[in-house]
């Protein structure tokens, strides 16, 4: 057991957990933030994506101990306040970017990460780029079209926000 | 996952001593291979020594041969990449993009964005997955793998499926190579895993030496292809590749494709590599 402290969604948290605790277990089972999902055992589906120090990472493929001292954002912490949605969440709602919703938290965390990266590099986030960027996020319902549309809309909402 | 003891190493020497003090310790870098393997209980290290936070093992330096003027691929440059440098850092490095764009492109096609944010070049090289991308690049570029004990040439380093020349407890600290005059990588990614079904890295050094390495296809891991090297040395073009007979001997057959299919793909990917 080791005491692991980090900042999650703007709050300092600390828990005593076994060394083999995955970051996703720390988030879901110890912090009880169940918006971050687990959809596979092979690091391929992306349902577990969170931001660690501002970068999208698969929380199922990382030990909580490796995130000691890090700043973590989960889907619960994306919006500015409890009563609001983040522009990307609004875009998914407006564009019917989900069906069962299981993949959605990971899709939204990957989406905001890609928009921020492309903006920082001054590159255009084309439809083709979005599809390529979604390599690590699997959706078994939508067929991706509306997810891509949502991200395009979310990107412009984030720029104008 | 079996229980394990986690340690954060402060530098390479500290990592080495933590490893030697452990019963069955393993280096943890990005964890993009080791964590899934541990989750499936295919690995059960007693201790994990995390090197991902060691600043001295991270970063990219590009030293141009010519001191004057703008950095251009054709002028030659010595490139050094720290073992704990992530795929995303390699893909996005501006100096590297000028001196050796092919390596940025290769890193930017590994897995997906989240994998690239954590996975490292040292981890990829140490793991030597027969379908990984970096081993082909390092072999074709004639790279040197530096550890906390010695320097090893890429030709001697990759010894078979998931096998390398690394001793127990030996830690890769950096990878270095000369930027090639010409270089290209053709990859046919598996639609499911994104690993290479076949990847061909072709490089022509500043001195005109041509080296071609193939990943994803060999029964015994990454290998150099003498026929393609000879053809491209006399004529660096896709046409030259057409004249090479790529044998299916020693190639992998699996659920994704048989050896003959992979032999054909080697030619197709080699053409892509030199046309890039
Ligand atoms: C979904 C997915 C898709 C992927 N797709 C690709 C792909 O298309 N192409 C590709 O090439 N790879 C792919 N990978 C693998 C990825 O590139 C890994 O990051 C890489 O193979 C291992 O690097 P790591 O830093 O994560 O190493 P880790 O998982 O931390 O370690 C891997 C092994 O290397 C050892 N090790 C790590 N660093 C060192 C060091 N400095 N010295 C000595 N030993 C060390 C560890 O002990 C361990 O045995 C993929 C992975 C995933 C999860
Ligand atoms: S749960 Fe993390 S990638 Fe599937
Ligand atoms: S909406 Fe059901 S998995 Fe994507």
Distance between the termini of chain A: 43 Å
Question: What is the arithmetic mean of pLDDT of chain B?
Answer: 95
- Beta-strand content of chain B: 15-25%
Just give the CATH class of the largest domain in chain B.
Answer: Alpha Beta
**Number of spatially distinct domains of chain A:** 2
Taking pLDDT < 50 over at least 5 consecutive residues as the criterion, the unreliable ranges of chain B are none
| Sequence of strands across the biggest β-sheet of chain B | 4-5-10-6-7
- What is the spatial order of strands in the main beta sheet of chain A? 2-1-5-3-4
Query: Strand content of the residues of chain A, in percent?
Result: 15-25%
Q: Total number of helical segments of chain B?
A: 12
Topology order of chain A in helix (H) and strand (E) letters: EEHEEEHHHH
Bound molecules: flavin-adenine dinucleotide, FE2/S2 (inorganic) cluster
Q: Kindly, what is the distance between the CA atoms of the first and last residues of chain B, rounded to a whole number of angstroms?
A: 43 Å
Number of helices of chain A: 5
How many β-strand runs of chain B? 14
The largest contact between protein chains, plus residue counts on each side, is: A-B, 32 and 30 residues
Elements of chain B, N to C (H/E)? EHEHEEEHHHHHHEEHEEEEEEEHHH
Number of strands of chain A: 5
What's the structural blueprint in terms of helices and strands?
The complex is a heterodimer of chains A (161) and B (276).
Chain A: E1 2-8, E2 11-17, H1 23-30, E3 49-52, E4 55-58, E5 71-73, H2 87-94, H3 104-121, H4 127-133, H5 145-160
Helix pairs in contact in A: 2-5, 3-5
Chain B: E1 5-8, H1 12-20, E2 25-28, H2 34-39, E3 47-50, E4 60-64, E5 77-82, H3 87-91, H4 94-99, H5 101-107, H6 113-118, H7 121-127, H8 134-140, E6 144-147, E7 151-153, H9 154-157, E8 158-160, E9 163-164, E10 172-178, E11 182-189, E12 196-204, E13 210-215, E14 223-224, H10 226-234, H11 238-242, H12 259-275
Parallel strand pairs in B: 1-3, 2-3
Antiparallel strand pairs in B: 4-5, 5-10, 6-7, 6-10, 8-9, 11-12, 12-13, 13-14
């Amino acid at each position: 057991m080791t005491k692991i402290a980090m900042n999650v969604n703007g709050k300092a948290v600390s828990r005593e957990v076994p060394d083999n605790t995955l970051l996703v277990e720390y988030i879901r089972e110890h912090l009880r933030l169940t918006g971050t999902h687990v959809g596979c055992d092979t690091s391929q589906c992306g349902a577990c994506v969170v931001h660690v120090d501002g970068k999208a990472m698969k929380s199922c493929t990382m030990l909580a101990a490796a995130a000691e001292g890090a700043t973590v954002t989960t889907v619960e912490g994306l919006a500015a306040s409890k009563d609001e949605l983040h522009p990307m969440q609004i875009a998914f709602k407006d564009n019917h970017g989900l069906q069962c919703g299981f993949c959605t938290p990971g899709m939204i965390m990957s989406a905001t990460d890609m928009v921020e990266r492309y903006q920082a590099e001054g590159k255009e986030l084309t439809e083709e780029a979005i599809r390529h960027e979604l390599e690590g996020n699997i959706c078994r319902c939508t067929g991706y079209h509306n997810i891509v549309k949502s991200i395009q809309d979310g990107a412009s909402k984030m720029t104008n926000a | 996952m079996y229980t394990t003891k986690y340690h954060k190493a402060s530098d390479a020497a500290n990592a080495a001593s933590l490893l030697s003090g452990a019963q069955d310790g393993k280096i943890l870098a990005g964890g993009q291979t080791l964590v899934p393997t541990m989750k499936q209980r295919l690995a059960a290290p007693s201790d994990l020594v995390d090197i991902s936070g060691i600043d001295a093992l991270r970063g990219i330096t590009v030293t141009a041969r010519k001191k004057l003027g703008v950095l251009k691929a054709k002028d030659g440059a010595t490139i050094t990449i720290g073992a704990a440098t992530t795929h995303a850092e390699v893909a996005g490095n501006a100096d590297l993009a000028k001196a050796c764009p092919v390596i940025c492109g290769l890193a930017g096609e590994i897995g997906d964005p989240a994998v690239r944010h954590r996975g490292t070049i040292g981890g990829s090289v140490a793991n030597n997955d027969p379908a990984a991308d970096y081993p082909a690049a390092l072999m074709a570029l004639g790279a040197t793998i530096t550890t906390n004990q010695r320097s090893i040439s890429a030709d001697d380093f990759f010894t078979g499926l998931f096998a390398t020349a690394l001793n127990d407890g030996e830690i890769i600290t950096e990878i270095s190579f000369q930027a090639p005059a010409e270089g290209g990588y053709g990859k046919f990614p598996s639609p499911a895993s994104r690993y290479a079904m076949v990847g061909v890295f072709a490089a022509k050094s500043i001195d005109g030496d041509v080296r071609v390495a193939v990943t994803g296809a060999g029964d015994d891991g990454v290998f150099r292809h003498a026929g393609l090297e000879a053809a491209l040395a006399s004529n660096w073009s896709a046409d030259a590749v057409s004249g090479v007979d790529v044998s299916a001997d020693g190639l992998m057959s699996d659920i994704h494709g048989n050896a003959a299919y992979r032999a054909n793909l080697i030619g197709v990917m080699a053409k892509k590599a030199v046309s890039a």
